[in-house]
UniProtKB/TrEMBL annotation:
Residue stretches spanning the membrane: none
Coiled-coil zones: none
Keyword Hydrolase: yes
Protein name, per record: Carbon-nitrogen hydrolase
Lineage: Eukaryota, Fungi, Fungi incertae sedis, Mucoromycota, Mortierellomycotina
Gene name as annotated: NIT2
């Protein structure tokens, strides 16, 4: 497909799985009504802000070989995707082999409601921000151990990342070298880091990889201690922001144009100019 519409979503998730599912399915219907072939949702779309001990009771495993799921949230998203005939990228929590920690997982679902790929976040957000939050993701999350090859979809080959992965250009370049045409980062950026770095990082990843970059985002106050920046957006391979969400719950729609991507890569073939003989 040379040109296809996509939608990026943002909303303020909370501790209730059923309420977050209702929000996501409503936004899926909005995206579908605007002609989107695939809708992108934030990190932790299933729940956010819950105490760690409660979070561990809400997660389900995803079978790596069969991609079968057990759990209200993903089953509901897959069902809605099939009914609408729309693909979906979404961040969720997943049961891990460790009793005290879980995975932060990015799931890609096709228009038939089938899970086609899962990626577990490899870079965990362990930071103590001056005049900001102290967040130690590794205290309740298991890091993934690999990047996932880009997945062929009706909008192009999608490379999967999650939030903090955005800060690591090596990962984005590795996905580009494997054929990625769209990079996606479902996120929940803090206010302080979002104001300083969010758009700059997204546009940088787009420019250096010559990929579309799609970043859905959590927005607003989830709990007493946690607030997310929002500003979900779609960036084209030239680094131009071609769609962005407003304040609060929202979706934004833009076109992914294969000929635009090919032209940019042809006119400025930076991947072929990389001196991998000197650095890798």
């Amino acid at each position: 497909m040379q040109t296809a519409k996509i939608a990026v979503a943002q909303f303020c998730g909370g501790p209730s799985v059923s309420m977050n599912l209702s929000t996501c399915t409503r936004l899926m219907r909005m995206a579908s009504s605007q002609g989107a072939k695939l809708v992108f949702f934030p990190e932790a779309s299933d729940f956010i802000g819950n105490p760690p001990e409660e979070a561990l009771t809400l997660v389900s495993p995803i079978n790596d070989s069969t991609k079968e799921v057990d759990g209200e949230f993903l089953k509901g998203i897959c069902k809605e995707a099939k009914e609408l005939g729309i693909g979906c990228s979404i961040g969720v929590h997943e049961q891990s082999p460790f009793k005290d920690r879980l995975y932060n997982t990015h799931v890609l679902i096709n228009a038939q409601g089938e899970i086609t790929s899962t990626y577990r976040k490899i870079h965990l957000f362990d930071v103590d921000i001056a005049n900001g939050p102290r967040l130690m993701e590794s205290s309740n999350t298991v890091a993934g151990d690999r990047i996932v090859p880009p997945v062929s979809t009706p909008i192009g080959k999608i490379g999967l990342g999650i939030c903090y992965d955005l800060r690591f250009p090596e990962m984005a370049l590795a996905l580009r070298k494997q054929g990625a045409e769209v990079l996606t980062y479902p996120s929940a950026f803090t206010i302080k880091t979002g104001e300083a770095h969010w758009e700059v990082l997204l546009r940088s990843r787009a420019i250096e990889t010559q990929c579309y970059v799609v970043a859905a985002a959590q927005v607003g106050r989830h709990s007493e201690k946690r607030v997310s920046y929002g500003h979900a957006m779609i960036v084209d391979p030239w680094g131009v922001v071609c769609a962005r969400c407003g304040d609060g719950e929202d979706i934004a729609v833009a076109e992914v144009n294969q000929s635009t991507l090919e032209r940019i890569r042809s006119e400025m073939p930076v991947l072929g100019h990389r001196r991998d003989d000197i650095f890798s």
